[in-house]
Amino acid sequence: MSNEDSTRPVFETASKCPKCSQPGEDRQQTPGVKGSTIHHIYCVNKNCKWYNTPCQLIQVNRDGSIPSPKDHSREKKIYEGFDDHDRRAQELIETLKRNAQAEIRPGGAEI
């Protein structure tokens, strides 16, 4: 039995839509870390809210193993800024403030 065959039941379980629990469809593969492959699973249940959306990302390691899912929501967020991001962020904040003021001023946001 090949590595792919031995991970197939795990992959099929992992590829179920979390919303409707129906099997999803593997529509795209992208390279992952350390030689792994990331499979993009789409829900194919037309009655599901997540129909035709990428509902799961499954990492398959080079050896064919599939790591257990991990909840990253409580981990520290890592943000890598870009050149001049502080200035650009301030510009956007000022624009949003001007727009908000225009919306509450009579005739300010009318077209």
Please outline what is shown here:
This protein has helices at residues 3-14, 85-104; strands spanning 25-31, 37-42, 54-60. The protein is of the alpha+beta class.
Topology:
Blueprint: H1 3-14, E1 25-31, E2 37-42, E3 54-60, H2 85-104
Antiparallel strand pairs: 1-2, 2-3
Tell me the overall shape. elongated
Largest sheet: 3 strands, antiparallel
Helix content: 25-40%
Point out poorly predicted stretches.
1-6
Cα radius of gyration in angstroms? 22 Å
User: Which structural class matches the secondary elements?
Assistant: alpha+beta
Order of helices and strands: HEEEH
> Order of strands side by side in the largest beta sheet?
1-2-3
Number of domains: 2
Q: Total strand count, please?
A: 3
How far is the N terminus from the C terminus? Answer: 67 Å
Whole-number average pLDDT?
A: 86
Please report the number of helical segments: 2
Estimate the strand proportion.
Answer: 15-25%
